[in-house]
Target: Elongation of very long chain fatty acids protein
Amino acid sequence: MTTIIKEAIDVYDLLLNQYSDPRVEGWFLMGSPFPMIMLLVFYQYFIRSLGPWLMKDREPFKLDKVMILYNLIQILVNGWFVEESFRHIWLHGRYNVICEEVDYSDDPIALLVARFTWMFFMTKVFDLLDTVFMVLRKRSDQVSFLHLYHHTGMVLATWIGTKYVAGGHGVLFGTINSFVHAVMYIYYLLTALNPEYKKSIWWKKHITELQLIQFVLTSLHSAIALFNPYCKFPKVLLAAFIPQDVFMFFLFLDFYRKAYLNPKKKLKE
Model:
C-alpha cells in the first residue's frame, strides 16, 4: 500500500510540476487542480440541488439590470480578446496554422500569450454565472445537459490548456471562441434590453450555426497538428480535445435540430 501511495504521489508530482508550464505556477487557480475541481463540484451541487432548493418557495429574482451589465462585460471582454489576438499575433504573422508549438520562454510576446490564455480560462469561470442566473430566475428549463456539460468542460479544458500549453496551437481556438461569444452576448444583451427582440432578431439561429462551424474548424485544426509527425505540440492533448470537439458538435447539432428544424419541439433558450 505504501508503494502504491508513493507511486501515486510521484505521478501527481510529475504531472503537476514537471510537465506543467512554470510561468503560470503562481497565477490564480493555477497552482493546483483542486481549487478548480472544488469550484466545479460546488457549481454542479448548486445548480442541481442547493440552488433549486433555496429558490423553491421564493419568487424569481428580477435580474434585468444585472443581466444587462453581465452581457455587456462579456461582449467587451470577448471582443477585446479578438482585437488583442489580431493586434499581437495574427497581423504580425506570429502563428503557424499547421503547427504552432508553445513558446515556454520569457519572451515578452510569449508571456503575453500565456497571460491571455490564463485570462481566457478565467472568462470560462466567469461564464458559470450563466447557469447561476438561470437558477436564481427559476429558468430550470434552460439548464440542459448540453449547457452544464459545455460550461463544466470548458473550465476543465481551459485550465489544462493554461497549465500545460499556455499558447501554441490553441490560440486559434481562443480567437474563434471569443468571436462567437462576443456575437452571442450581443444577442443576449439586445434581448435583455427588450425581450421582444427574441421574436424579431432573425440571426438567433445563426449563432448556433457559428458554434457548429467553430467545432468543425477547431477539430480539423487540431487533427492537422495531431497527424503532423514534425509537430511537437503535445499529441496527447490534441487526441483528447478532438473527441471533445466532435462530441460538442453533435450536442449542438441536436439542439439546432430541435430548436430550429422542428418547430413542434422547439427548445427554450
Summary: The chain has one domain: 63-265. The chain is about 70% helix and 0% strand. The mean pLDDT is 90. The first helix runs from residue 2 to 18.
